[in-house]
Amino acid sequence: MHSESPAGADRCPCRSGESFEQCCGPRLDGTRPAPTAETLMRSRYTAFAVGDTAYLLTSWHPRTRPRRLELDPGQRWMFLEILRTQAGGPFDDTGVVEFRAHYRAAGGRSSLHECSRFARVDGAWRYLDGDVEI
């Protein structure tokens, strides 16, 4: 884990309402896989928030995964809003999660609005790609 990671009892950065140790913590450390596309989306947001590039790359679909990933150290992720989901449940093979992720950077506050696509690879949810909404 990273020095920026919340303590286990702290609220999870994904704003699920659960503690980090009950929500995204076990996903980031690899002890509990995401059961749905939405939970994978939440854990990926948390990984961005704490700077866990290894988890981001691992949770990326092998067909679309970049070779490496560099995060902007000046960008601070503030909170996540899940706007809608389509499929992506425990018995689905694909799913869509539309979200808005709010952040602060040198230029002030902004947000990223994306419709992300997810697919299962060997039974595990992976981020495939997404369309950024402007």
Automatic annotation (TrEMBL):
<dbReference type="InterPro" id="IPR023006">
    <property type="entry name" value="YchJ-like"/>
</dbReference>
<dbReference type="InterPro" id="IPR048469">
    <property type="entry name" value="YchJ-like_M"/>
</dbReference>
<dbReference type="InterPro" id="IPR032710">
    <property type="entry name" value="NTF2-like_dom_sf"/>
</dbReference>
<comment type="similarity">
    <text>Belongs to the UPF0225 family.</text>
</comment>
<feature type="domain" description="YchJ-like middle NTF2-like">
    <location>
        <begin position="36"/>
        <end position="130"/>
    </location>
</feature>
<dbReference type="Pfam" id="PF02810">
    <property type="entry name" value="SEC-C"/>
</dbReference>
<dbReference type="InterPro" id="IPR004027">
    <property type="entry name" value="SEC_C_motif"/>
</dbReference>
<protein>
    <recommendedName>
        <fullName>UPF0225 protein NRB20_30670</fullName>
    </recommendedName>
</protein>
<dbReference type="Pfam" id="PF17775">
    <property type="entry name" value="YchJ_M-like"/>
</dbReference>
